[in-house]
Every structure is written in C-alpha cells, then in structure tokens.
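Here is one chain, start to finish.
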Amino acid sequence: MSCPDFFQPHLAWLNQRSSKSNMINVVRFQLSGHVSAPFPGALYGSGNLTAELTANKETLLLATRCLFSTFGNKKGQLTFSEETLRIYVPNGPLERIQEASSSVIQSYANFECRADGTLLCGNKFGNVIVSFTDISEPTPI
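Its structure:
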C-alpha cells in the first residue's frame, strides 16, 4: 500500500469537524521499537495523535509523546525519558524529539505502509512499528 493512501483516511478523520464544539476526532496509536545506538534501548508509546500544519512545509504533522527506556547501564537499572514523536506524512520521516531541548534525537525513514494499519520505519540503528486505529465517535476535548 502506498503511504499517501495509508495516511489519507486518518488525516481526513482528524480534520473532520465534530458537530459538537467540545468534541474532536481522535486517532489512537500504539508504538514499539528498538534502538541499538547511540544508546541501546526500547521505545514504547500509546495514546492519541493530533494533526498540525507545519509552518515551513505544506504537510500534516502527527505529534504525540512516548517513553524511551535505556538498558545495559552499569547498575543494570532501566531509565525512562519522555520524548515527542513526529511523523511527517506521507513519506516521513518519523522523528524522536527530546522534550527539554526540542532537538531531534533520531530520525527514521524507509517507510513501509501496510494495509493492516501498521507503519514500519527504520534507520541503521533500529526499527519502529506503529499501529493506528480511528475512533468512530468524537472524543471530548
């Protein structure tokens, strides 16, 4: 499936206005991935996506937050950080953004959009899998 065709129904749903002023349309997601460098770890996120029009590109941006857990440190303890994820549609990339500095930590390209609602993307350091589900009823703001 081509990525523009993959994202179009989700974007149409997000941009459709609800008849009730205190309701919005929502796309839910689940995300998982692994990173081998520069800091080995696992990526996990779930929640709602929002659509935004970027100022410097005529494209839609899906934004959300996720948790990144590093492992293999000297004490053997897991550490967690909250990061923002952005998916520039339709052809990428997916970017991991550090909350405090707003700098890009890693960028994943090589999008593969599947008919089952799954997006695969990766780089030489790891892969990310994202699954999207439209919610059929508007959600309260």
